[in-house]
Amino acid sequence: MKKISEVLSASGSFDPKQKINSSTKPTDFIGSETVIIATTGIGSTTVNGKTVSYSEYSQEAVKNAKIIGLMQNFQMNQMRQNPTIFEIGSAGKYLVHSSRVGGGLRLSRVVYNAANMLAALYPYDRSIAEDAVYGKAYGKQWLLNLAEDLFSEPIGITVIFRDAKRNIAAGAFFEHVTVSSHGLGVASATPNIGENVDLQYERVIPMFTNGTDTMKGQA
């Protein structure tokens, strides 16, 4: 990143012909067509003799994640709690710095004759589909009832950002994700039917920095 002094002339004016990011190439930009969004679904695996849930960050969880197709919109938000307090006898205020962070995701896409959004987030697994608790809902092409026991189980969401050359720029794993709301809308003037889900996660873990896989060697 350049300093302000590097882009201002001696008189203090800005030269509009000078590029601030002169080293940026057209292929460096990240577009929606190169972003990957995947879900781990529910389940677990054994790592070094320890049972690890797919909703937790691990190499196995990411490798087994299934890409969610036909996604139209993805939004992420996170908020750090920094409350403001006041004192009696003064108009001054204090900002309390906290490490408590909460966040959510929103996914939306068109509806078509395949797994709907809720079913896509919980991809089919025969061992789970035959379970007495989850079997009633699991494995169906469409899931519409958030009261099902299935949605009490958290999942993991993987998002990978790549440039035009498919080089990885960054990635994130969202741990212990649960569905907080689901919506589906039909309008006579619109040819497509839209569907969306709001998700909450416990924490987000960066997977890649500067194109390097930071997961190597981690369980």
Report on this model:
This protein is mainly beta and 219 residues long. It has a single domain (25-213), classed as Pnp Oxidase, Chain A. It has 4 helices and 13 strands. It has helices spanning 4-7, 59-63, 117-121, 126-129; strands spanning 36-39, 44-47, 50-53, 66-67, 71-80, 84-86, 93-95, 101-110, 155-162, 168-185, 194-201, 203-209, 212-213. Strands 1, 4, 5, 8, 9, 10, 11, 12 and 13 form a 9-stranded antiparallel beta sheet that branches. Strands 2-3 form a two-stranded antiparallel ribbon. It has a two-stranded antiparallel ribbon with strand order 6-7. A hairpin with a 5-residue loop joins strand 9 and strand 10. The protein is globular, with a radius of gyration of 22 Å.
Task: Output the keywords.
single chain, 219 residues, mainly beta, Pnp Oxidase, Chain A, two-stranded antiparallel sheet, 4 helices, disordered C terminus
